[in-house]
Amino acid sequence: MGRKLFPMKKLPLVALALVLNSCAPPRDEASAGHQTFPVRGIVQQRMGDDPATMIIDHEEIPGFMPRMIMPFRALDPKEFEALEPGMVVTFDYHVGEHESWVTGVKTTGEKGAINYEEDKPAHDDLVSPGDAFPDYAFRDETGKAVHLSDYRGIPVAITFVFSRCPVPEYCPRMMSHFATVLEKLKPAPDAPSTFRLLTISFDHEFDTPEILRSWGAAFGHRRGLPWSLLSTPDKTVIDEISSRTGLRFGTVNGTIQHNLRTLVINPDGTLRRLFTDENWTVDELITELGAAASQGRN
Question: Over the stretch 152-198, which tens digit does the pLDDT of each residue have?
Fold first, then answer.
């Protein structure tokens, strides 16, 4: 994935609230797209009370993912039982279309650094439902300059990703969810007549309009849809959004750490709903968009 991603509850990094089956055979195990990668990393800490999930600072996975700190889920939780922070481990990382998991965990006997940073406590400037969401400038997937204020008067959903994140539960899930939202809203009789989905990359150094356009096509994005892929080379824009939403994206000792945020904005530009992880559902987002549209008509 790339570098370290609202009432605001504290949660660790991307997917801190993973709700996954522990020992059930993964549904992607026999799929044609199933890949397996050998991985080496340093145990950082356990993921709350979940015995099947461990936060690990993994080395670069060539051809798949840069070095980053992220939660890994063991197919058998017993493989994580004896692990302690600082232990260097190796394992097989399995990636399917919809989920990923770990097998074959082994300790090397070495010790490594603890680079993981907990999410910072909420600040007074975090946006809350009913607050006006600030206006920011971006470029869309065609390179055209756009502002968030261009979409005033209609409900808007915003999510944050980066294209170098290949883990199916994280950024790809955000893209797939937006694509499914569009599909489900087409035949819905009570769907908002006008709305906009905005996918914003927080990887200001790498993601360009061209890269996002190519990446988005794999998830069904195309011109003419009410769905824009936005980016900016200006780090201050991402920093300002992060300070208002609790979004995190950055590098600590060469390791990418990030979390996720998804917002629903009312037609008047105020925040309606802030999702603080990747576990929101398509139906939840559709409900919020519909409610925002109704509020705009009142």
Answer: 999 999 999 999 999 999 899 999 999 999 999 987 777 778 999 99
- In a shared domain, residues 160 and 293: yes
Total of domains in the chain: 2
Whether residues 188 and 288 share a domain: the answer is: yes
Contact 83, 185 (CB under 8 A): no
CA-CA distance, 177 to 180, in Å (whole number)? 5
**200 in any annotated domain:** yes
Same domain, 203 and 103: no
pTM above 0.85, yes or no: no
- Which residue range(s) make up the domain with 51? 35-111
Residue (of 286, 294, 289) closest to 183 by Cα position: 286
Indicate which CATH number applies to the domain containing 85: 2.40.50.320
Report phi then psi at 148, rounded to 5.
-60, -30
